[in-house]
Amino acid sequence: MKLEHTKVLLPLAAGCGRLPPEQLPIQRMIFLLGGSGYVGQAYQQLLRAKGVPYRSLQRSTLDYTDPQVLLAALRRDRPDFLINAAGYTGKPNVDACEYDKTNCLFGNAVLPGRIAQACEEAGVPWGHVSSGCIFTGSRPDGSGFTEEDTPNFTFRQNNCSFYSGTKALGEEVLAGSGNVYLWRLRIPFNNIDSPRNYLSKLMNYDKLLDAANSISELDEFVAATFACWENHVPFGTYNVTNPGAVTTREVVDLIQQSGVCSKSFRFFTDETDFMNTAASTPRSNCIMDSGKLLAAGITMSPVHQAIENALARWQSSPTRTLAP
Ligand SMILES: NC(=O)c1ccc[n+]([C@@H]2O[C@H](COP(=O)([O-])OP(=O)(O)OC[C@H]3O[C@@H](n4cnc5c(N)ncnc54)[C@H](OP(=O)(O)O)[C@@H]3O)[C@@H](O)[C@H]2O)c1
């Protein structure tokens, strides 16, 4: 069933009670899954800043991974839209997924299918936080992968990390679902120091792998994805990365120029050196094309500018100790 974007009228704040129905302000209510996580917290901040009513569900209080439980909640609260920021990410990095495959597979591949089932039955459109890590490299001409390209870092190619494989499976599970956005996030960062922030990670690692990537400023990501819904952009897959690509060395140069961190960064000789000494599983390094999002009228700042902005507004964590 193809849904149209819908809006519901919620009870009004005191003082507006005598307005005729056609003048009532239109309110929306959002369900947020995974709101406790790194990406989910950014959504909570956005929704609070915009004054959009939402309900953040946590598995510990409402097991949204059970489709019948989620369906009952959707039918009871009748949200206009659901955001799925739940999923399994390895901590401190993707290597951890190799050692917790059951949870990784469930969170990234099974759960999206269950949410799709509940949302379809309840008639609630939704958005899923996917990942650009299902690609490696760039198109043969050096340009970024578009939404038309088939992911090339997946179990089907047998060349990927377990994490990337499960994220690609999650997209396969949702292929053909009509009323869902698949938003591909890549290597999130912003101005808040955090073990999950790409800029913090670079500052903390002993040695770095130089690679070119398209990456996503987290606050711009959540704003852009929510704008898809607000602006009635057609459902489908979107690469939600800051336009362009940046190498690790370029990011390090920007960090040093900003004065946020002055340590001298060391680099692995190449990917083989990195794999032999520091990693258990291959990394996705890839360039994405975010032109489809732009064509839909949603802009994000160019990647180098986004990094400069984050560093200019950098908020250090008082507890962070930088590696020498
Ligand atoms: N962070 C990144 O670098 C990155 C990059 C690209 C894409 N993504 C995607 O963005 C989504 C959110 O990532 P995140 O970094 O915010 O993750 P996170 O900090 O680990 O939070 C994810 C949340 O998902 C919920 N969850 C549901 N099922 C889960 C399961 N089986 N295992 C673990 N958590 C589960 C948990 O919330 P409750 O238990 O409270 O319900 C958890 O707090 C994921 O789908 C991830 O693949 C992340």
Count of separate DSSP helical elements: 10
Q: If you consult CATH, what is the topology?
A: Rossmann fold
> Which compounds are bound in this model?
NADP nicotinamide-adenine-dinucleotide phosphate
User: Quaternary status of these chains?
Assistant: single chain
**CATH architecture classification:** 3-Layer(aba) Sandwich
The value of Rg in angstroms is: 20 Å
Number of domains: 1
Short overview:
The chain starts with 29 loop residues before the first strand and ends in a 12-residue tail after the last helix.
Describe it for me?
This protein has one domain: NAD(P)-binding Rossmann-like Domain (Rossmann fold). The protein starts with 29 loop residues before the first strand and ends in a 12-residue tail after the last helix. Residues 1-17 have low confidence and may be disordered. The longest helix is centred in the middle third of the chain and has 22 residues, at 101-122. α2 (67-77) runs parallel beside α3 (101-122) and α7 (248-258) runs parallel beside α10. α3 (101-122) links the parallel β3 and β4 (126-131). The chain contains 10 helices and 12 strands. It has helices at 38-50, 67-77, 101-122, 162-174, 198-204, 218-230, 248-258, 271-277, 291-295, 303-312, and strands spanning 30-33, 54-57, 81-84, 126-131, 180-185, 188-189, 207-208, 212-213, 216-217, 236-239, 246-247, 266-267. A 6-stranded parallel beta sheet has the order 2-1-3-4-5-10, sandwiched between helices. With 324 residues, the chain is an alpha/beta fold. Helices cover 35% and strands 12% of the residues. It is globular. Bound molecules: NADP nicotinamide-adenine-dinucleotide phosphate. Residues 34, 36-40, 58-59, 65, 85-89, 103, 106-108, 111, 129, 131, 167, 185, 188, 196 line the site of NADP nicotinamide-adenine-dinucleotide phosphate (NAP).
